[in-house]
Specification:
The structure is a single chain. The two termini are about 35 Å apart. It is globular and about 50 Å long. Strands 1-2-6-3 form a four-stranded antiparallel β-sheet, sandwiched between helices. The chain contains nine helices and six strands. The chain has one domain. With about 240 residues, it is of the alpha+beta class.
Length: about 240
């Protein structure tokens, strides 16, 4: 029989899923600096998955359809976390939706105050892969992310503190920019110690231009090539 706290988790999950989320997780973020988390102790990760055919379509170059879904999922996630935060506020808890307006688009900012990926690992939604993307068991890296900060008294998951990529070097070998070093992530390892974002951005812009004449930093090769993503996009 569920207790009151477990019921709260279930109610929040059900609402966020009904808004269009594909993954929902709850993480204890009190180990992080208070100013990065608005003094709030819980992070709720929300992920939305790309359609399988869209990711299959970027095996050579990014496509206009991929770009459209990139925007579509970002808009969906903004809506989900905004509605989720409003629901929590109505329930009497503090809550902040980490929308793009709140944290920035990612096009010009190198680092968010509190990255969604950090919350995702605290909420056991996945781990950070060698390409610096979140890797999930169900969808690989074929997801977009957003999050909510709150003080709702939910049950939180045991955090993921180490990579589960092992000896796999598929994304490192396939990266057109040579941005992936192959070093395994673990909590506390700064992104630039295992991944070169400058190389990634430069090549991604070139590939977007080549693929669909796009003026945006978007590539997706490391998403498409990941074995966990491949398992998702080629499943029935």
């Amino acid at each position: 029989m569920m207790n009151e706290t477990e019921n709260l988790n279930r109610n929040i999950e059900n609402e966020l899923f009904s808004y269009g989320a594909d993954i929902v997780g709850f993480g204890n973020i009190t180990e992080l600096p208070p100013d990065t988390r608005m003094g709030l102790p819980v992070g709720i990760i929300v992920a939305a998955a790309y359609p399988k055919n869209v990711i299959r379509g970027i095996s050579s170059l990014p496509t206009g359809e991929y770009r459209q879904w990139y925007d579509t999922l970002n808009e969906r996630l903004d809506s989900i976390v905004t509605r989720g935060a409003a629901m929590l506020l109505e329930m009497g808890y503090n809550a902040t939706a980490q929308t793009r307006e709140y944290v920035g688009s990612g096009e010009t900012r190198d680092n968010m105050l509190l990255p969604h990926k950090t919350i995702a690992t605290r909420a056991a939604a996945g781990w950070i892969g060698k390409s610096a993307l979140l890797v999930t068991e169900k969808y690989g890296s074929a997801v977009r992310l957003s999050s909510i900060l709150t003080d709702a008294p939910v049950v939180t998951s045991e955090p993921v503190n180490k990579s589960r990529c092992g000896d796999c070097m598929v994304c490192a070998d396939a990266c057109p920019a040579g941005a992936v070093s192959g070093r395994l992530w673990e909590t506390g390892l700064y992104r630039d110690e295992f991944f070169d974002p400058v190389k990634c951005r430069k090549t991604a812009r070139q590939r977007a231009k080549q693929g669909f004449n796009g003026d945006i930093t978007i590539c997706g090769k490391c998403i498409e090539i990941c074995p966990y993503t491949r398992k998702y996009i080629f499943s029935d």
